[in-house]
Amino acid sequence: MKALAVAGMLLSTHAHAQSAGSSIISLGWLRVMPNSSSDPLFIDSIGGVPVNQSVPNTGARIKDADTVGLAFTHFITDNLAVELAGGVPPRHKITGANAFAPYGEIGSAKQWSPAMLFKWYFGGAESRFRPYVGAGLNYTWFGDEKITNSALQTQVLGSGFPNASSVSTDSSINPVLNVGASYAVTKDWFVSLSMSYLPLKTTAKIDTTLASGAHAITEAKIRINPIVAFLSIGYGF
């Protein structure tokens, strides 16, 4: 009888960790894996004169990046939770594609992508292993965008001066789809692995100051569409 009573207390305590009103803070490894492609580089204008011409067979790709992820999950019911997720913005390397492939790495940018998700946990609050599915919204913007390849700067963008080009990118709100599972190691500590998908795209505008002082404005539309893996350790309270 005493053993049954102790087991009942443990189950009750464990249920509280993933039951209505409880919360979990998670920290871990986040890997952003873009499935990227782009339209050809497009020349908007040179010296204020419209050009409106694409450069055939050109393009760019976004490389994978790793960073630290952070999430706060609150259980509205035993099965329904809301989650705020983010992390240290990863820096993506950008490489040339097609005719730009020989240049290798051509630039880089930091990606900020906080998200809010509603997640449905299967099983009861007392279950150690709980798969889940989720959906929500993400807001993405980029920072510290720059051209890092001097050969591309000279041969394509038309200026050999360092820092002659400034880059700006669009921000966007995007849907997020999420699947994963958590496992209760103890009544308070959890490990979790999730995979998310974001249909994400942006337009990068490049303003280059030419030797004459005139400005050349070019742009590239890039589809990023990343899959994001998050392996984390969480503490429930």
Strand content: over 45%
Number of strands: 17
Radius of gyration: 23 Å
User: Count of helical segments?
Assistant: 2
- Helix/strand-derived category reads mainly beta
- Can you tell me the CATH class? Mainly Beta
Coarse morphology: elongated
CATH architecture group name: Beta Barrel
Helix/strand order, N-terminal first: HEEEEEEEEEEEHEEEEEE
The number of distinct structural domains comes to 1
Largest sheet: 8 strands, antiparallel, barrel
| CATH fold naming | Porin
The percent of residues in helical segments reads under 10%
Strand order of the largest sheet: 1-6-7-10-11-13-14-17
How far apart are the termini? 29 Å
What is the residue-averaged pLDDT? 89
Unreliable residue runs: 1-15
